[in-house]
Amino acid sequence: MTSVVVADDQDLVRSGLELVLEARGCRVVGTAANGRDAVETVRRLAPEVVVMDVRMPVLDGIAATREITAAGLPTRVLVLTTYDLDAYVYDALRAGAAGFLLKATPPDRLVDGVRTVAAGDALLAPSLTRRLIEEHVRRPPPTEGVPRELRGLTERELEVFDLIARGLGNDEIAATLVVSEATVKTHVNRIIAKLGGRTRPQLVVLAYECGHARPGGRSGREALG
């Protein structure tokens, strides 16, 4: 059973989410009514996933997400909000969230999302990734060669990084490079370690911010070829 903490400032929403998750095989180990309580509850209970609202008192969900990821806690953050605003999605990704869903999401899809981020994958469609990056990231001018931030990566790790930036999952990367998913996972873990423990969505943001990726799915190396 996937262990979950639910953080939302509305009692009815917290109760409803708890019922939905418990009825579909997840184990809700705790709840929180504001961002500060969410951080403390996650520290105390170490759940696999925290389902995090954005607008909460004391500390909002974005700031709470930032504290959880900055502390190096193993809990993955799935942001769940009423507001379909690009700024919220982008801020959540930069803060280290592993996924983003709306509260209008069907119950089964929510549970699938919880399990997806618990398994270490990101919950963000490639089309949404491109739209967010194009609208909210100020990209530097293209430069020749590998950006300074990525120079510690091997050639194979750069290939994997390129595919992550396009929004591909481990299974799709494995198929593209004709290697096993276990091999891809090893490369992804090494990339994350070399780049300072960033989450997978943060790798996508980094790829665009440093000018390595381009809207439309091409990497800086392809654009130069």
Describe the structure concisely.
The chain is of the alpha/beta class and 225 residues long.
Radius of gyration: 18 Å
Spatial strand arrangement across the major sheet: 2-1-3-4-5
Structural class: alpha/beta
| Euclidean distance between termini CA atoms | 47 Å
Strand content: 5-15%
Question: What sort of overall outline do the alpha carbons produce when their principal axes are compared?
Answer: globular
Mean pLDDT: 82
Q: What number of structural domains do the residues give? A: 2
**Low-confidence stretches at least 5 residues in length (pLDDT < 50)?**
220-225
Number of β-strand runs = 7
Helix content: 40-55%
CATH topology of the largest domain: Rossmann fold
The CATH architecture of the largest domain is 3-Layer(aba) Sandwich
What letter string, H or E per element, gives the SSE order?
Answer: EHEHEHEHEHHHHHHEEH
What do these coordinates show?
- This protein is an alpha/beta fold and about 220 residues long.
- The chain has 2 domains: about 5-125, Rossmann fold (3-Layer(aba) Sandwich); about 135-225, Orthogonal Bundle (Arc Repressor Mutant, subunit A).
- Helices cover about 50% and strands about 15% of the residues.
- It is built from 11 helices and 7 strands.
- The chain has helices at about 10-25, 35-45, 60-70, 85-95, 105-120, 125-135, 155-165, 170-175, 180-195, 200-210, 220-225; strands at about 5, 25-30, 50, 75-80, 100, 215, 220.
- Strands 2-1-3-4-5 form a 5-stranded parallel beta sheet, sandwiched between helices. Strands 6-7 form a two-stranded antiparallel sheet.
- Helix 2 packs parallel to helix 3 (about 60-70), helix 7 packs across helix 9 (about 180-195) and helix 7 (about 155-165) packs across helix 10 (about 200-210).
- The longest helix is centred in the last third of the chain and has 14 residues, at about 180-195.
- The chain is globular, with a radius of gyration of 18 Å.
- Residues about 220-225 have low confidence and may be disordered.
